[in-house]
Design a protein that fits this description.
Blueprint: E1 25-39, E2 49-63, E3 67-71, H1 78-85, E4 93-98, E5 106-107, E6 115-118, H2 130-141, H3 145-154, H4 170-181, E7 188-192, H5 200-215, E8 219-224, E9 236-241, E10 244-250, H6 251-257, E11 263-268, E12 283-289, E13 292-298, H7 301-310, E14 315-320, H8 325-333, H9 337-345
Parallel strand pairs: 3-8, 3-9, 6-7, 7-8
Antiparallel strand pairs: 1-2, 1-4, 4-5, 9-10, 11-13, 11-14, 12-13
Length: 361
């Protein structure tokens, strides 16, 4: 068998975070809960309520300068969790501790002093200018004019400071939202579906801004139901389903625990006898036409590449393959693709465990 040296270009390594975050935890949530109150009227108590869907028994640590991708289907509870982490919704059970200013864990009474929150939808509109809108919010926090200008420069809106809100693109509105979330110099930044409505160029610019903030020591949490948007950006991943955190940690660790690691796509030119260098039991998907061939394998890629070289096959590229959301959920829950697809669309499913957990609001 030929000895080959495999070199990965930055393009092919997009799916793997190159700089693993090694910081220590600075904010800790232990067995926290927030369940929405639902009407449960009776004959003598027409205004009675019961505990409904929400977040139940969730434990999570946030790390300084790390970006956590919080993924889950619509209705998993991502928005409720971010609002609870931001102090907008109360923590009904459990405890929250931090060590932002000390090495010793201290109880957190008010999360709002540490956390900046960017909701999924902020309606910036009207003839108010960008600078005026940010200054009005800054007055509530006693933010200086110098800091307002620095924030506009940080998010790339300094040249648009005098533009009316009605004239901003969706990407500019997202930048303004993140500037507003940074007014209090938060240690933690929560971003709820920040890539919604952004074109690829705007999405890449927004991702670069997130990386800049993380490099300054800000802990960032990004919620999304699109895993592909988070590739190359996040240091850790958390899988949320029915209001519960199924798994969390560095991307490679979670993939390994769920058996989703070690999948690669290999492409080549010309005709090729794929079975001669990639056994059928290792091939997850294959495609071949007049322009070339491609296959997805679950195996040590170096052995496949070595076998392909021995078979005199023309290889043009190879890259790791990340699971999609349905694959994450199937691996974490043990449910089939059909069951997962049905559940995501359903509003009356039983909880994952013995607690009653339903859809997000």
């Amino acid at each position: 068998m030929s000895n080959i040296e495999v070199r990965l270009s930055p393009r092919l390594m997009r799916g793997f975070p190159l700089g693993q975050c090694m910081a220590e935890a600075v904010l800790s949530f232990r067995s926290v809960q927030h369940r929405h109150a639902l009407p449960a009227p009776t004959l003598f108590k027409p205004w009675a309520k019961r505990a409904g869907p929400g977040i139940v028994g969730l434990s999570l640590d946030l790390y300084e300068g790390c970006v956590l991708g919080l993924i889950g289907p619509n209705g998993a509870g991502k928005t409720t969790l971010l609002r609870m982490m931001a102090g907008v919704l109360p923590v009904q059970k459990g405890k929250v501790e931090s060590r932002f200013d000390t090495d010793v864990w201290q109880p957190v009474d008010d999360l709002r002093q540490w956390v900046g929150h960017m909701p999924e939808q902020v309606r910036w509109q009207g003839r108010t200018t960008v600078h005026e809108a940010l200054s009005q919010l800054g007055e509530m926090r006693g933010t200086s004019e110098t800091k307002i200008e620095r924030l506009l420069a940080l998010v790339g809106l300094r040249s648009r400071r005098d533009d009316a809100l009605d004239n901003l693109s969706q990407g500019m509105r997202q930048r303004l939202s993140i500037a507003a979330a940074l007014l209090g110099s938060p240690k933690v930044l929560l971003l709820d579906e920040p890539f919604n409505g952004l074109d690829p160029v705007a999405a890449e610019a927004f991702a670069a801004l997130v990386r800049t903030l993380a490099s300054k020591g800000v802990s960032v949490v990004i919620s999304s139901h699109m895993v592909a948007q988070l590739e190359g950006l996040i240091d850790r991943i958390g899988l949320l389903h029915r209001g519960q955190l199924l798994d969390e940690g560095p991307l490679e660790d979670v993939e390994r625990r769920l058996g989703l690691e070690g999948r690669y796509t290999i492409t080549g030119e010309g005709a090729a006898d794929i079975s001669s260098f990639a056994p059928d039991e290792d091939v997850l998907e294959r495609h071949q036409d007049d322009d070339g061939w491609s296959l997805t394998v679950k195996r040590d890629p170096k052995s496949v590449l070595s076998a392909a070289v021995d078979a005199d096959v023309n290889i043009t590229s190879w890259a790791p393959v990340r699971p999609n959301l349905v694959e994450w959920l199937c691996a974490a829950t043990g449910m089939s693709v059909d069951d997962i697809s049905l559940e995501v669309a359903s509003s009356a499913m039983l909880p994952m465990r013995t607690v009653e957990v339903g859809e997000d609001e």
